[in-house]
Design brief:
This protein is α+β, with helices and mostly antiparallel strands. Helices cover 33% and strands 28% of the residues.
Length: 149
Amino acid sequence: MTSLRTPVEAALSVGHLTYSQTFPCKPSAAELGRDLVREVLGVWHLDGLADRAALIVTELIANVSRHTPCPEIRLTVGRPSATRLRVGVVDREPARLPILSQAADDDESGRGLLLVDAVADRWGYDLHGSGRRRWGKEVWAEFRTGGGK
């Protein structure tokens, strides 16, 4: 992977940053997503959030690869403000919205969004496009950074 250090640090003083990368919509993309998140958070000196953010990215990628037929997804890692970090996964299936549900004790799946809800400070989704021309959505999770950069 190309080093992010120079362009990201140069952009750090500009304001609200977002880094994104496109991956195949497969469960194996979670490893690439975790690596990207850890590298970006290292550049932003937010290493203390890396484990939580990597866990969330793993769950979001697992959900989109399981519940949508999209060939590609876009992972975003952003700083919407000086006190927040946002990770998200964009897909092209606006009609397949995330649903927080309760899994039974013997269910082998269905706990991903419960985990996201427990680990993130807040989470949700944004639809992309307008009116009848929705082209996708981003499912995201945010963390407080405690101030700083």
